[in-house]
Each structure stands twice: as structure tokens, then as C-alpha cells.
Amino acid sequence: MDSKAEVAVSGLTVNYLVDPRGIDDRTPTLGWRLTSAERDIAQSAYRVRAASSPRYLAQDRPDLWDSGTVASDRQVNIDYGGPAMTSRAQVFWQVRVWTGDDRPSAWSPIAHWETGLLEPGDWTAEWITDSTARTAGPLPIFAKRFTVSPRRRIEHARLYVSGLGLYEARLNGRKVGADVLTPSVTDYRKRALYKTYDVAEYLRTGDNVVGLLVGNGFFNVPEREGRYWESVTWKKGVAGSGETIRLSGRPKVIAQLEIRYDDGDVERVASDATWRVDDGPIDFSGYYGGEDYDARRWQSGWDRPDGDHSRWRHAAVAAEAPATLSAQFEPAVIEAERLPAIALTEPEPGVYVFDFGTSLVGWPRIEVEGSAGTRIALYPGWYLDNGRVSQNGMVGWVPNVVVADHYTLAGGGVETWQPRFGYHGFRYLEVRGLPNRPRLSSVTGIAVRAATAATTEFDCSHGLLNAMDRIADRSMRSAMIAPTMPTDPNREKAGWQADRGIALSGVHRYDFAAYNQAMLREVFDAQRADGDLPGIVPDPTDFWYIGDINWSGAPIVQAHESYRRYGDTASLRRHYSGMRRYFRLLCSREQDGLYPAGDIAAGYFGDWMYPGQHWQHPFDPDNAHFTPPEMTVAWGYWRIATAMAAIAQALDEADHALEYRGKAEAIASEYHRRFFDPATAAYARGAQTATALALDMGAPPKELRDPVLATLVESIRAAGNHLTAGMIGLPAIVRVLTEAGRHDVLHDLAVQTGYPSYGYWLEHGATALPESWEWNGREGVADLNILGGLTSWFTGGLAGIQQEPDAVAYDRIRIAPAVVGSLTTVDATVRTVRGEIVSRWQRDGDAMRLDIVVPANSIATVVVPLLRGDAEIIAPDRARLIDRNDENATYRTGSGAWTFTQR
Question: What is the extent of the structural domain holding 141?
């Protein structure tokens, strides 16, 4: 390294969050990134200092913690070593590092974090609800008037709020915060989440008013004739189901405002029976069926000091409350996009249909003018039927119900409105009841998702592949409504855990470090006494403790993948005992060396959504593509055992790791013994999924691996270079073919336009990933992220960006791009906890240029594909050649920008 290299420390994180406010972790973990224009930057030591005030850091007086100089290359998951955190604590901190020349960097910019209310006794507020006994009708609004002293200066002010189910906080006529659909869904019987807001800017001297609107959310899904609520009836009353959490009564809220003055005095405004409540403008709040809003009931000034609450009722203190109030630390859901309509039609007089050009998950915003009492109806949908909106794929199998939002005008000018407490998946919006023909700009589509950073960019010279990547990204965003990533944004809105795991397998797209931590919290909240985990989280009825361990065990696999990607051992340690309990339960159910399987009625789904599958009868032995659930469950058993071994190793539990590795090897061996046909070198008649799962496990003995791989390739070729796998088999096929270097096969799969393929979907108008290969643009779920696995090959194969197999948090990476087919350019960026990895190549005949960027404190193995065996490679200085054959030249580099050319 150049002894004069400048290294900067930036991107400081606490529990993988930037400057978090209101966390409840007493011993958080820290991380940072290094940047430099120079190559070969490697951290050799670090020093962290933390103080209760920025001025102490400026004086080099860290009164909370000084790590001293620590000889280490670690830069993620560093345990905070100061005193255990207390409630409302503010910590300001900095980092400096040493690199190979033994020179310290400059101190990083100051970052900070703040704790929330860590002790139950910190809450003086009480849960409050409407004082009426009714279970339906207008939802309540709450308000409390208070005074801010004009003689003292506010040092800071915090508002802590939670709701069962959703809330919108307001102060002096303004919405507090940019978050929507708050708080995240939990099992409300066990836990509710609160948010911490900095509200100093909302306050003023003298009179102030804090207000709360509430919605039912997932907490309470009321029935209303003609409105969709199928997912509740689907689970309610099922034999064996428990008490539902979706029919929990009127919404409840808890709020505590704390104003700290510069003299140290703290004033609290806490929810209790002195708060006032009245009927609000929301007449119906259905998480599935939509929202009805009567603007005539909006009381002007109710959330401002000039409002009149004299005729309002007193709030009632709620009789029941969740067992635990915890901080919502995961990124909030926000309005991420505003999509203008691209077309407006009038298929029938007075019926207007807006087209937003793409599937989105969120809600419409309308601008309308008319007389008081005019009722506007909004019907979202993915499809058109004779020009009208069709809700096929949205309302399940319940007849004579719709998803709709309604707005009743107050009159007196232009009115703007959007729903607050529910969301839909849709492309089109049918509007009825308008007094006049609307403008194209009268309706906007609001797409919502978690406010977490995008981490992947991909572009190439093949338009079809770019389109595939675009629709996969759209469906990923559509699921980012809660940490459990509920799939199907209309019909179920349920956190199917295999769906989440499959969607994230091998895919980088967004920063899910904190999301994964929150997911594990919800999963292990739901763990039964016997160790079992549900396939849906949260499980609303205690019914979905299903048999198929590819669903219930998916969070353990995700925990391991999250550790590899982010280096998060804190989450592993927190939930390790629960993971062990779950795996012991699986072992106790083992039969003849494998986990037993059942039918769909017992909650076994097999290779869900393989081509030709009927959802009601998914197990069809006569279908040549069918892989029996015995095989998919066996693979799931192996995958969970493999993840457990790696997790144990990460936690220095060597004996446990040895035990789990032995179990995984035994499962793979038994899979081969039971299902392999030596006469055909095939599993399950050569079905793609069965074969790929065997290879993924390493089940075939070494001498059979090439013949079994050939069976897989032959199956794909025989299918006309089409996939015949479902959601379980697809990611395994991508992994196996990538590891084998069969990028030619993956390319040929990716560029198809006939059924079944991504191109088939796109030619039928897909703007997101449909649920089924059979999707034809007219029916079914049009946005569900379970069959997007092939797009992981774009960054992992075409750009070749991967971690080394035993690497953690990208400390060692591999860049091995695939130059295949007619592609002439590929450009990909993956943002990691260490910084950006870039792989960009272009070819012209037998000439090629490869530009890469390796983040600081990482080393890379760079595999340059040779377009000719005798090609001349021009490599940068300090890129060390470690191998060359007729196909590749392999180099080792440190961090920085590197260019390799061949001619």
C-alpha cells in the first residue's frame, strides 16, 4: 500500500442502522466502512470512542467508552463496550482505523444513537381505547391538550407511540414522521412495537395538542357485507385452529410525550383516561377489504390548539394490553414512489379506469371536487375485463365480495385524499361516482415499502434480462411491508416464511440486516413450548404450525445467510437456543433417517408452483415434472442441519457444529440411497427439482456427480431450455449450474419467451413476478416474489460477484464473470457492509475489458474468462496471477479499482 494513502472512515452503523433513535438493545453492535482512492487498503487496528456529548469527543474525553487501540481487521458486529445502556440514553461516537502503513486515519464524522424506554416502569402512559362498547362503526380519534412553558428552552422532545393495530400521530395539525402503516405487524398477544419520534420542531410555546388517528390493521379485521376478508374466514373456525388474533376488538393506543427543558426538568404528557376521544372520519377500516372515509366528519382543528374537544368523550383505559412493549427498530414503511397514471378510459358512462403502467403495492391518491355527501368508490385491480377493472387474483375464492376504498366529499373546493390504514396490490383503478370527468392527473398511485437502501444495480446488453431484473425488483419491493415480508399483497397478506426465504436466497437487492433481525424476533416469539415454529409469521390462529419444514425452518436458513452477508452473530446468539430446540424437535420426528412428509392437507407443499401444478392438488405423480414432497422435505432437513452447523461454528460451539455436520451428511447419504436410480443416473425420473436438490446437497458420490449433472442438463435441454421447477427447485438449479460453470445452460433458460419462462410472462404484460408459471395476463396473483430465483444469476453469474464459500461479511470475495451468448456488456454493483463491489465487462469479438472495484478491507479472487486460450491478458500492477488454463486466468487482488483487458 502507498504509505501516503488517505483512508476515510464513514458509514457508521449501530445494529446495522444509521443514527437510530429509540432502540432497546442494551449492548448494541457497531460497524463502519473504509474508503480510499488507493489500492490494497486493509485495516490492522481500530479505536472507538463514545461520549454523552459531541463536545466531549472534540476534547478527546470519551466519558462513556474508549476501546483503546484494538489490533483487528473487524469492522462489523463490534460489541459496544461501554456501560450497559439505560433508558433515553444518547451516545455520540467516532472511529479511527490503522491500515498497513501503521498510520491512523482521521476520526470519522460523529454518529449517534439513542435508546428508548427500556423498563416497563418508564411508561407512565396507559393503553387507551374508545369508551363505547361497539365493535364496528366510525373509528375513534384521540386528542390531548397541554401547555409548553414560554419561560424555558426545550432541549429535546420525544414522542413514544404504539398502536393495536395502526396509528397516525399528529401534533399541532401536522403528521408526525414520514412512516405509514405503523407499527409493524406482530403477534399482539405477546408483543406490540412502539416508535420514537423527535418532535421538538412540532411544539410551540403555550397551548399544544397531540392527536392520534387509529386503524384496525391486522389487529382487528371486521366483517362487512360485500367486502373481502377471506383470509380471516379461511383460518377462523378451521378444525384445530386456536384463538384468532385478527378479531381483537376496537383499536388501542399508548402515547407518551416527554419534553426535556434546558434546566433538566422533564414534562410528560401520557395517554390515560383524561384524554378525549370522538368518532373520526374513518367509517370502515379493513386490512383486506379497504377503507371508507367520510370527510364531512373531519373536525377542523381537532389536532390543533384552536380545536374544540369540549363535547368529546373521555377515553377508556384498556382492560388488556400486550405482554411486552418493544422498540420498532426495523426501517419504517414509507411512501417510496408516486406513480402518475399513464392512461384514462371511460368504458361505461361515469366509470373511469386509470392505468399506472405497472403493478404497485400501496394505495391511490385522488383529487376531486364536488358537493358534500358525494360518495366516490375506488376499485383496485391487476386486470381489465372488457375495459372494466377485474379483481381476479385479489379476493381468493369468496363470491360476491370486493376490495374497495370509498371517499365521501365534504364539499367546498378541491379535496385530496388517500387511505391510511390498508394497502392493495394493483395496476388499474376503477373510479365510480365522480360528479365530473376527471383529469389524468386526478389520481396518483402511491407505492409503499420499507425505507431500506437498495444494494444492487444491474444492467446488460440484453433487454429481456433487464426486464426480468426489473419485474423481480418490483416484486421484492412489494413484499417489503413488514419484516416477515408478507407475500400476496391482497388475498392473504401473510408472512409465509419459505416465500421470504426463497425471495432472498442469493439475492442482494436491498439492505435487510435490520429487517432480518426483526424477522427472527417475530419467529421466535411464535415458537411453541415443544420447539415448533409456524410456517406463517405471525401466525394469527396457531393453525399454521405446518408439516413442511421448508416453511417452518426457513428462518434458520435465513439467519445463517444473514450472518454470511452482514456478519451478524448477535442475532445468532440471541436465538440459538430456540434454533436448537426446533432442530431437536425435527430429529425426534425423523423416520428412517429422513424427515417424514405428508399431503397438502397436512401442510406439505412440496415444490410449490412447478409448471402444470394445480394448487388444490399439487401432488401429481403422473406429471413428469413432479418431485415428491418426501424429497423436498428431505432436502429441507439437510439444509436446516447445514445452517445449524454453520451457525454453531460461528458461535464457537465446535461440538454442536460437528454434530450438525454429521446429521447433514447422513441426510444427504440417505437421500441418495433412497431416491437414486442407478440405471438412469436420475432421481425421481430425472425431474429437474429432484436432481438439483441432490446436487445441492452433495448427495451423489463423487464418481456420480458428473453423470447426475448431465441428467439435469439433459432434462433442461429436453424441455426446450425451459424450467420445470417450482419455488423450491429453482434456486437450487441456479446454484448448482453456477457452481458447475454451466452458464450456457442458465443463459439459455433466461432468454426463453415460450411457456414456462420469464419471457412468457413479459410477453403477456407482466410488470412484476406472477405467482405461477401459468400466468397469462388475465387471472391469478400478478405480484408475488417466489419464482424470481433465476435473476440471482445476473449478479452472481453474469457479473460473477460472490463471496468465497467460507467468507463472512465480504471479507473475501470472488469476481468470476460469465461471458455467454450474445451479451456484449454487463454492469453490476453490489453494496455490502464493507462498501461497493463493481463488476463491469464489455466484449468486442475476441477482445474484452473487465473493470472491477473491491471494497477496502477485502481481498478478491478475480477469474478472467479467456475468449481464446492463447489470449493476452494485460493486468494491473499488484494483481497477482495465481493460475491460468485454457479457460480462465485467475488473479488475487486487494481493494481498489482494477482493470483487466485481453486481446
Answer: 123-330
The predicted structure's pLDDT at residue 230: 58
Question: Within the chain, how many helices (H) and strands (E) appear?
Answer: 16, 48
Mean pLDDT of 74-87: 97
**Are 816 and 780 part of one and the same domain?**
no
What residues have CB less than 8 Å from 199, skipping those under 6 apart?
157, 158, 159, 171, 176, 257
Q: Does 457 map to a domain? A: no
Confidence at residue 103, expressed as pLDDT on a 0 to 100 scale:
86
582 in any annotated domain? yes
Q: What is the largest CA-CA distance in the chain?
A: 90
Q: Is there a domain that residue 277 lies in?
A: yes
The pLDDT score that the predictor gives to residue 604 is 87
Residue 95 CA to its chain's centroid (Å): 29
Q: 685: left (phi > 0), else alpha (psi -120 to 50), else beta?
A: left
At residue 514, the 3 state secondary structure works out as: helix
Of 443, 257, 479, the closest CA to residue 340 belongs to: 443
Closest to 168 in 3D by CA, of 56, 255, 67: 255
Q: What is the CATH number of the domain that holds 560?
A: 1.50.10.10
CATH at residue 397: 2.60.120.260
- In the chain, the number of structural domains is 5
Cα–Cα distance between 537 and 868 in angstroms, integer?
A: 52
Question: Around 428, how many Cα atoms within 13 Å sit in the side-chain half-sphere?
Answer: 23
State whether 762 and 658 are in the same domain.
yes
**3-state secondary structure at position 496:** strand
Residues 6+ apart with CB under 8 A from 454: 509, 510, 511, 831
Q: Do the domain assignments include residue 434?
A: yes
Q: Whole-angstrom Cα distance, residue 645 to residue 656?
A: 7
**Residue 240 pLDDT more than 70?**
no
Write out 592-644 in H/E/C secondary structure: CCECCCCCHHHCCCCCCCCCCCECCECCCCCCCCCCCHHHHHHHHHHHHHHHH
Strands 90-99 and 880-884: unpaired
At 565, give phi and psi (nearest 5°). Answer: -80, -40
Q: How is residue 247 annotated by DSSP?
A: B
Q: What is the mean pLDDT of residues 244-263?
A: 85
| pLDDT the model gives residue 431 | 99
Q: Which of 469, 492, 496 is nearest to 484 (CA)?
A: 496
Query: Nearest 10 degrees: CA dihedral of 198, 204, 205, 210?
Result: -70
pLDDT one-digit tens code per residue, 849-879: 999 999 999 999 999 999 999 999 999 999 9
Q: Which residues contact 889 (CB under 8 A, 6 or more apart)?
A: 863, 864, 866, 873, 875, 881, 883
Closest CA to 751 of 822, 802, 682: 822
- How long a stretch of residues is the chain? 903
AA letter at 773? W
Q: List, in order, residues 6 or more apart from 588 with CB less than 8 Å away.
A: none
Cell numbers found for residue 211? 392527536
Q: Over 90: is that where the pLDDT of 422 sits?
A: yes
Residues 247 and 161 in one domain: yes
Tens of pLDDT, residue by residue over 494-512, are 899 999 888 777 677 999 9
Asked if 450 contacts 808 with a C-beta cutoff of 8 angstroms, the reply is no
pTM of the model: 0.95
Regarding whether 744 and 850 lie in a shared domain, the answer is no
* Same domain flag for 180 and 201: yes
* Same domain assignment for residues 306 and 377: no
Question: Per-residue pLDDT averaged across 712-721, rounded?
Answer: 98
- For residue 717 the three cell numbers come to 435441454
Residue 548, pLDDT > 70, answer yes
| b/e map 642-660, b = 16+ CB within 10 Å | bbbbbbbbbeebeebbebb
pLDDT digits (tens, 9 = 90+) for 36-49: 999 999 999 999 99
Q: What integer is the mean pLDDT of 464-484?
A: 96
